[in-house]
Write a structure and sequence with these properties.
Blueprint: H1 24-32, H2 46-49, E1 60-67, E2 81-90, E3 93-97, E4 109-112, H3 128-141, H4 167-173, E5 183-186, H5 200-209, E6 212-216, E7 218-220, E8 226-228, H6 249-252, H7 272-279, E9 285-287, H8 294-303, E10 310-314, H9 317-326, E11 332-335, H10 339-346, E12 355-360, H11 369-375, E13 380-383, H12 388-393, H13 399-411, E14 416-419, H14 422-430, H15 452-458
Parallel strand pairs: 5-6, 5-14, 6-9, 9-10, 10-11, 11-12, 12-13, 13-14
Antiparallel strand pairs: 1-2, 2-3, 3-4, 7-8
Helix pairs in contact: 8-9, 13-14
C-alpha cells in the first residue's frame, strides 16, 4: 500500500506493520474523529502512517468458504456452504490448512516468510510448537456453521418473508411441535450500526439477514398519535429532547433517529399504523405496552386486519382476557415464568392457542417450565438482552461464546430468543433448524432458492 498525506506522513518511509482489510474501517474512523464500533476485529493503522507507536495484532486469521451452486439438486451430496481453507499470519510465520471439506484432518502447512517468501518449504514438521499455537488460533477464531451467502436475484427476494395468511395459520405457526424451528424475536427491531431501533428501515435490514419476528414499542404523542420509540423521552435515540408526550406528531416528524452509537441517520420516527401496514406478509410485530393499553393495541390490529402480522404483549392475565374478549383471533405474548403462573393463566379461559409464553430473561428457576408450557401447546420465549447480548456488546465474551450462549438457550428448552442482536441470534438459530420441520411451510424461501418467480407468485403477480 502507498500512502501520501503532506504535512502528516513523512515521505520515503517503509513500514513492516502487518495489517489486513478489516483494519481500514477503524483507520478511517480514527481519521474522521468517529468512535470505532466496539465489536470490530480491526485495529487502526494510523499510528504506523504518522510514525507513532502502533498497536499490533497478536495474529491475523482468514477463512475461505466455497458456495455450492448445486446444493438444492436431488443428487447433490455437498453442503450449501462449506469451509474450504483457513490461514494465519503470525509474526514471520504463515500457516495454511487446505481442502478441509474432503480431508477434515488435513495437515497444517507452515512457512517462514522471512527466509522463504515464495513459500516453497513447508517447515511444519520442524516447528511443532508453532503448529500447536496455530491450532489454538484456528480454534479460537473459527465460527462453526457460518451463515449462508444470500445469492438471490432480487432485493425483495432477499427478505426472509413469513408465509402466513389466515388467523388459523398464525395459531398453527406458534403451536408447539417436537420438530419446531427455533427463531428470533428482534428486540426493538434489531438495531445495528446505521440502523436505529424501532425503525422500519431497521426491520427490513434484519429481515434481509434472518427470519425474525420483531418487538416494537408504541408511545403516544401529545396529540395522541402512536409512534414507535422505546424510551418515554426523545433524547437517547433521536435528535429531539424531552418527553414524547410533550410533543405533537408534526414536531416529531421533523426529527431524525440515531443509531446505537449515537450517529444521526436519515430515518424518521415511524407511526404504529405505518409499521403494521409495512409488516404484512413480511414478519410479525410484537406490540409492547409502554403507555398504550393492551385493548388499544388490539383494536389497532383489528382496524388494520393484521391478525396475521401483529400480536399484543400482555403484562397481566387480565389484559389477556380483555384482548381475547375483543378478538378471538388475536395472538398475545404473555408473561408466564413458572408452573403456578401457567395454572393461573389457564384458569382465565383464554386458549393456549392464542398465546406465546415469555418465560424469563435469564435461566428460569423452574427448569421444567418449558416442558410444562409445551404440553399446553404453546411456544416459549426467553430473552438474551440481559445476559449474552450485554456481555458481548461490553466486550466480555467473544462472538464464538455469544453463539454458544444462543445455542444453550435453545437447548435448555426455549423456542424463541428475544435478542438485542437479532441478526446474530437469527443466523445462529437458522443453523439449528430441522431439515424437514412442519413449520418450514410458514417461511418463504427457507433452505431453498428463492427465485424471482417465487416472489412474483407470492405477491400474486
Amino acid at each position: 500500500m502507498i500512502a501520501s498525506w503532506p504535512g502528516k506522513i513523512k515521505p520515503a518511509q517503509v513500514s513492516h506493520h502487518l495489517t489486513a482489510a478489516w483494519d481500514f474501517l477503524p483507520t478511517i474512523c480514527q481519521l474522521s474523529g468517529i468512535r470505532t464500533p466496539d465489536h470490530l476485529d480491526g485495529i487502526s493503522f494510523l499510528p504506523a502512517l504518522t510514525s507513532e507507536k502502533q498497536p499490533e495484532h497478536p495474529f491475523l486469521y482468514w477463512e475461505y468458504y466455497d458456495y455450492n451452486y448445486n446444493w438444492y439438486k436431488p443428487d447433490n451430496k455437498l453442503p450449501r456452504n462449506f469451509l474450504q481453507s483457513v490461514a494465519v499470519r503470525y509474526g514471520k510465520w504463515k500457516a495454511v490448512k487446505n481442502d478441509m471439506l474432503k480431508n477434515k484432518g488435513a495437515a497444517i502447512e507452515l512457512y517462514d516468510l522471512n527466509n522463504d517468501p515464495e513459500e516453497k518449504n513447508n517447515v511444519a514438521s520442524r516447528n511443532p510448537d508453532i503448529v500447536q499455537k496455530v491450532k489454538e488460533m484456528f480454534a479460537k477464531s473459527s465460527i462453526p456453521d457460518a451463515p449462508y451467502f444470500p445469492y438471490t436475484p432480487d432485493s425483495e427476494a432477499r427478505l426472509h418473508l413469513f408465509n402466513i395468511h389466515t388467523p388459523q395459520q398464525m395459531k398453527d405457526f406458534f403451536h408447539y411441535t417436537a420438530d419446531r424451528i427455533p427463531f428470533v424475536s428482534s428486540h426493538r427491531g434489531g438495531p445495528a450500526l446505521g440502523y436505529p431501533e424501532n425503525s422500519i428501515a431497521t426491520f427490513a435490514n434484519t429481515l434481509q439477514h434472518t427470519w425474525s419476528i420483531i418487538e416494537t414499542d408504541p408511545h403516544y404523542t401529545k396529540d395522541s398519535v402512536i409512534i414507535l420509540m422505546h424510551d418515554p423521552t426523545l433524547d437517547r435515540t433521536s435528535t429531539g429532547h424531552g418527553k414524547i408526550s410533550d410533543h405533537t406528531f408534526a414536531e416529531i416528524q421533523k426529527l431524525h433517529l440515531k443509531d446505537e452509537l449515537g450517529n444521526v441517520t436519515k430515518y424518521k420516527i415511524p407511526t404504529l399504523d405505518e409499521a403494521i401496514e409495512w409488516a404484512k406478509g413480511k414478519t410479525i410485530l410484537i406490540l409492547d405496552q409502554k403507555d398504550v393499553p393492551a385493548e388499544t393495541r388490539t383494536k389497532i390490529i383489528m382496524k388494520h386486519q393484521a391478525q396475521t402480522s401483529a400480536m399484543v404483549m400482555c403484562y397481566t392475565f387480565e389484559d389477556a382476557k380483555k384482548c381475547y374478549a375483543l378478538d378471538k383471533d388475536i395472538m398475545m405474548e404473555v408473561f408466564i415464568p413458572d408452573r403456578k403462573s401457567a395454572d393461573e393463566f389457564e384458569a382465565t379461559g383464554v386458549p393456549w392457542s392464542n398465546v406465546v409464553a415469555f418465560v424469563t430473561h435469564t435461566q428460569p428457576k423452574d427448569p421444567d417450565i418449558y416442558q410444562y408450557i409445551h404440553q399446553k401447546g404453546a411456544l416459549c420465549i426467553r430473552g438474551s438482552s440481559r445476559t449474552v447480548d450485554k456481555q458481548y456488546t461490553e466486550n466480555k465474551i467473544s462472538k464464538l461464546e455469544l453463539i454458544k450462549g444462543y445455542k444453550e438457550i435453545i437447548h435448555s428448552g426455549a423456542d424463541i430468543i428475544e435478542a438485542d442482536l437479532g441478526i446474530q441470534a437469527g443466523n445462529t438459530l437458522e443453523q439449528l433448524q430441522p431439515a424437514n420441520s412442519s413449520k418450514q411451510k410458514y417461511f418463504i424461501g427457507s433452505k431453498q432458492i428463492l427465485s424471482f418467480n417465487n416472489v412474483l407468485n407470492y405477491y400474486g403477480c
